[in-house]
Design a protein that fits this description.
Helix content is about 30%, strand content about 20%. The chain has about 400 residues and is an alpha/beta fold. It binds flavin-adenine dinucleotide (FAD).
């Protein structure tokens, strides 16, 4: 491993990969160091069964039409789906008629109008303050919104949500988003198993101490998660400016985990069963199930916020039982026999990530901008938390990495 470079990039997740490609395009002498044995960070695809990929982390190309990773996927021959799945809403064991689904959609629209009005009023308050929590739709809605930021609605800023650039195109990556990121990283150089311990920016340039030796660089792009930074796993000499420290504290990762349930038969449901089911028992059991994930024979769902945190600490059987309660309600008690494998992610437990994605605390939506302000003209923070319009996403992370390199060129 070389000990000198113009630009050192810390972390080989989406942001580090985006930064490395930008540096390569600009002809900069760069080096990427990654603590893990693999690239991709929160993008990770495994096989649920031979030839059946499933994503433990990112899966959807959000805002597909403007997502810079969609053309990358095209170039690499990675497949993704653009069609909208058919959808049904079940309350307990009843599929709701279209008129009732329209009532739910109206409830969501009213909240969105509240969010935009709150933004226009210059407020930065928790989303929960803009919701009728007594409505029969609130349990499902609050579950669904927790999936957006990996936190519960009382824990994140509605203003932050209002700023997210959403084209309403969410394209699942059939071959796996993790596969897309790792294939994209094949054309950059990454030093794996190289963990940064200390970043000394006291002198000219930066000295970065790793478990494999010290690297000297003019500029450093730091892409590790805000929860890794907040845990002080990396020491900064001198300490970071207070404004950067406050931005890190204001943008902690929430919890969000993916689940996959493999079924043996081709399609063990009635032919007219929708591809996506929104389920609510009107109380504490709420799930969005995708019954056929990109054509693969498994059910996908996710949980976030406090529920995800709690479930992650329980045996996997607890999550499975909860999901089976809902699926049994919809498909009958024999259904559970059709599930032959159950898998889940556990991102809160991953020491190199420590959560899912960054939720801006109420009152703190402007901190994403602050995190992106260069420190001492040589430290550049990137990663999903530093994206102002595509935070919480892989493409936002990728773009923030590329933008950080452009900032470093100007210094
Ligand atoms: C369950 C789940 C589902 C998601 N679904 C979607 C989705 O469908 N679509 C979407 O766009 N986004 C989704 N996301 C979010 C998306 O995955 C992330 O926003 C994005 O991947 C973050 O990339 P990053 O580069 O900012 O950070 P990371 O991916 O966390 O990369 C940081 C890297 O730094 C490394 N590192 C940590 N400490 C050190 C150290 N000391 N030294 C060196 N290296 C270190 C880590 O190992 C890691 O590889 C999901 C996330 C989760 C958890």
């Amino acid at each position: 491993m070389k000990s000198n470079c113009q630009l050192l990039i810390i972390g080989a997740g989406a942001a580090g990969i985006g930064a490395a490609h930008a540096a390569k395009r600009a002809g900069i002498d760069y080096l990427v160091v990654e603590a893990s044995h693999r690239v991709g960070g929160r993008g990770l695809t495994e096989e649920l069964a031979p030839g059946i990929p499933w994503d433990l982390g990112c899966h959807w190309l959000h805002s597909g039409g403007i997502n810079p990773l969609a053309p990358v996927a095209d170039e690499l021959g990675i497949h993704y789906d653009k069609e909208l799945p058919s959808r049904g809403f079940y309350m307990n064991n009843q599929r709701l008629p279209e008129t009732r689904v329209a009532e739910y959609d109206k409830y969501c629209l009213d909240i969105w109008n509240n969010v935009k009005q709150s933004e226009a009023n210059g407020e930065d308050i928790a989303l929960s303050e803009l919701i009728d929590l007594n409505s029969e739709w609130a349990p499902y809605y609050t579950y669904w919104e927790s999936l957006m930021t990996s936190e519960d609605v009382d824990q994140f800023s509605a203003l932050d949500l209002a700023r997210y650039e959403d084209t309403d195109e969410n394209w699942p990556v059939r071959d796996g988003y993790g596969t897309l990121l790792s294939r994209h990283a094949e054309s950059i150089h990454v030093e794996l198993n190289t963990a940064v311990k200390c970043i000394d920016w006291s002198g000219a340039g930066v000295s970065v101490e790793t478990n494999r030796g010290t690297i000297h660089a003019e500029h450093v792009v730091i892409t590790v998660s805000t929860s890794v930074l907040g845990s002080r796993d990396i020491e900064f000499k001198p300490a970071l400016p207070l404004s950067t420290q406050e931005a890190i504290e204001a943008l902690p990762l929430g919890c969000y985990n993916n689940f996959a349930m493999l079924y043996e038969e081709e399609w063990p449901f009635d032919p007219d069963t929708p591809d996506r089911i929104d389920y609510s028992n009107g109380d504490d059991i709420n799930f969005a199930f995708k019954l056929r994930c990109s054509g693969w024979p498994y059910i996908y769902c996710a949980v976030a916020g406090r529920q995800a945190r709690w479930l992650e600490r329980q045996p996997a059987e607890e999550s499975k039982n909860l999901m089976m309660t809902a699926l049994t309600d919809i498909f009958g008690s024999d259904f559970k026999k059709k599930i032959v494998k159950f898998r889940s992610s556990a991102w809160g437990d991953d020491p190199l990530v420590k959560g899912a994605f960054s939720a801006s605390k109420p009152g703190q939506a402007n901190q994403r901008k602050v995190l992106g302000v260069p420190v001492g003209e040589r430290l550049f923070f990137a990663g999903e938390a530093a994206s102002e319009k595509a935070f919480c996403t892989a493409h936002g992370a990728w773009q923030s990495g590329a933008d950080a390199v452009m900032k470093s060129i100007k210094m």
